Amino acid sequence: MNAAGVPSPSSCARSASPSKTTEAPEPSEAQPAGTGRALLLDLDGVLLDTRPVMREAWKKVQEDHHLDIPFAAYEAHLGREFSDIMQRLGVVDADGVHRTYGSASTAAAHMAQEFMGITDILHAFVAAGWRLGVVTSKHVDRAAPLLARLGCPFGTVRTPAGSGRSKPAPDPLLLAMVDLGVDPASAVYVGDMPVDREAAARAGIAYVHAAWGYGEPGSTAVKVAQSPSDLLGLLRQAPACAPFVEGSLV
Q1: Hey, how many other C-beta atoms are within 10 angstroms of the C-beta on 116?
Q2: Within a 10 A sphere around the Cβ of 50, how many other Cβ atoms?
Q3: What is the Cα–Cα distance from 147 to 6, expressed in whole angstroms?
Q4: What span, in angstroms and rounded, lies between the C-alpha atoms of 225 and 122?
Q5: Which residues, at least 6 apart from 30, have a Cβ–Cβ distance to it below 8 Å?
Q6: Which terminus has fewer CB within 10 Å in the chain: N or C?
Q7: Pairwise CA distance, residues 241 & 32, whole Å
């Protein structure tokens, strides 16, 4: 069990194998000696389509707490930790709202659906020797059951229940790399919101924007995957790059 409190078996290979139509990426020749490659992914909007769940949970919050804040306002801040979002929305009873939202999310969890092809992609990366991890701002009690649906254990799952600050701070990404035993130069983070891109930049790791998710790339310089299957091509073409830093480190 990792620091976030989520069981982390060592490999996906035990659960399933890549589909015959999925080409596994080859490790880059530029990979530093003695290190592995890591694929880190966000949960909401990257691995699973949880928007229906979030919309239903927010509706319950509006009803029980008499809030007139539209779901679109909440959605605009996805990727941040819940209390951070509440502060930005000016919600006073953040703890009470969180309890309501969490309970309603659990009740509506059956509405979440994995994005087409994502499981095959995960298995393909594992077959090629990559280490997998999840970095999400969803709390562990809601993240763990959703991730279990994929049938593909991850080497680490970092949530707000762990150590350090939440996204857009680099802490969860850096801690995930420590968990997996990889360097920033050998890791890629796949996200769909501005906070994901900022966290990756501040952690000094490569970033790929998931266009099937909920946000926009935010920069023409960002690599974009239009579908989960595009990840294979994008990541196969990218050698293990030197760390880069863009933006504030505070």
Answers
A1: 12
A2: 24
A3: 10
A4: 15
A5: 239, 240, 241
A6: C
A7: 10
Facing residues of 40 across strands? 133, 189
Sign of CA dihedral 73, 83, 250, 199: negative
First to last CA, the chain: 30
Give 184-233 pLDDT, tens digit per residue: 999 999 999 999 999 999 999 999 999 999 999 988 889 999 999 999 98
Kindly state the helix (H) or strand (E) to which residue 188 belongs, with its residue range. Answer: strand 187-191
Q: In what order do the strands lie in the sheet with 187-191?
A: 156-158, 130-135, 37-41, 187-191, 206-210, 223-225
Could you tell me the two tokens for 47?
A: 């691995």
Largest Cα–Cα distance of the chain, in whole Å?
57
**8 A C-beta contact, residue 189 and residue 166:** no
Amino acid letter for position 221: A
Q: How far is it, in rounded angstroms, from Cα 171 to Cα 173?
A: 6
**pTM higher than 0.85, yes or no?**
no
Would you give the DSSP letter of residue 131? E
DSSP state of 157: E
Q: What is the SS3 assignment for 109? A: helix
CB of 203 closer than 8 Å to CB of 246: no
Residue carrying the six token digits 């989960």 = 228
| pLDDT at residue 2, rounded to an integer | 54
Sign of CA dihedral 199, 150, 110, 231: positive
Distance CA 177, CA 183 (A): 7
What are the helix (H) ranges across the chain?
51-65, 71-75, 82-89, 94-107, 118-127, 140-148, 171-180, 194-203, 230-237
